[in-house]
Design goal:
eight-stranded mixed beta sheet, single chain, TIM Barrel, alpha/beta
């Protein structure tokens, strides 16, 4: 399961194994489960279900990408484990050790490891402080305030080259400058500053945000994305808006007003992500247009920023 990809923030995807267990609201409509378990019938999702290691041929693909990158003097980004979670304890540790060795053997690739279990990074990595390879980028999924409070503190303790957040699907507003729950303290994740103690942890270097896709996708209020965009701009942190997903906020015109029905009637086409009951009180209206049509422009602008791979580790 190694391939080139249409994912906006990477050049390749590589899956060392497949399978996972849902642990948070972001997992509710998991695309990997829908594809691998429901459609292809390849892997069962859930606790105590066996994870499936991919083929030896698949494991050789990053070596080829690395050779090509060395020849062309490029640095491809590899999203590792789009169909799994590297820090899922149900996967054998020896598989992770094989993955760490592969990463070390491919220094011309930047490995983007995204997890919903950052509390396991220090336990399951064989790299200690100061020994993380320069080509490792660690990320955490943050879909709401609860996941921000739980996960960012662990990511901030990881001494890798780049730390990033994937706020997709974003379910509610998240203030990354004031994360409550860092041992009872307030953390500005974009600077690494802990308010009460006047101390610092590693900051977040990059923020990805996006809406949900798929048949059961939930709409996101556009102000949630605008807030993250503005927070990142103020802190000088690169921001990438990946997609609206299935739902696109639309301008309220007379033509649109004539098409809108009350929630519960034609509810598969319209949604009110700000919670207004009927949508007639100047509430935000989202139309189900599909991922391709909805696109990835936020207020008419494509946000496609990346951190420098040559950034010095904090």
């Amino acid at each position: 399961m190694a391939e080139n990809t249409n994912i906006e923030w990477c050049d390749h995807t590589f899956n060392p194994w497949m399978g996972c267990t849902k642990i948070s609201p972001a997992c509710d409509n998991c695309y990997a489960e829908a594809m691998m378990q429901e459609r292809l019938k390849k892997v069962k999702w859930g606790a105590k279900e066996p994870r499936q290691r991919t083929s030896s041929m698949n494991w050789k693909m990053p070596l080829k990408w690395d050779r090509d990158a060395r020849i062309t003097s490029t640095r491809p980004r590899v999203f590792c484990a789009s169909l799994a979670d590297v820090f899922d304890k149900e996967a054998p540790q020896e598989w992770r050790e094989d993955l760490w060795s592969l990463i070390e053997a491919t220094p011309h690739l930047d490995w983007l490891i995204l997890t919903k279990r950052p509390q396991n990074i220090q336990k399951l990595c064989h790299w200690s402080y100061g020994t993380f390879p320069d080509n490792v980028w660690m990320g955490a999924t943050v879909e709401d305030k609860a996941s921000a409070a739980q996960r960012i503190k662990h990511l901030g303790q990881t001494p890798c080259k780049v730390r990033f957040l994937s706020c997709e699907p974003l379910m509610e507003p998240v203030d990354l400058t004031d994360i409550v729950g860092f041992c009872g303290e307030r953390l500005n994740a974009l600077t690494g500053y802990i308010h009460e103690h006047d101390s610092w942890v590693h900051s977040i270097d990059w923020v990805i945000a996006g809406g949900e896709s798929g048949s059961r996708a939930r709409p996101t209020h556009p102000d949630c994305f605008r807030s993250l965009r503005d927070q990142c701009a103020a802190a000088g942190v690169p921001f990438l808006f990946k997609q609206w997903g299935e739902w696109l906020p639309i301008e309220r015109t007379p033509e649109i007003e004539n098409k809108i029905t009350m929630p519960g009637q034609n509810s598969g086409l319209w949604a009110w992500p700000d919670g207004t009951r009927d949508g007639w009180k100047n509430g935000i209206v989202s139309a189900r247009l599909g991922k391709k049509t909805a696109g990835r422009l936020l207020d008419g602008i494509e946000h496609h920023q990346f951190p420098s791979p040559l950034k010095e580790a904090a």
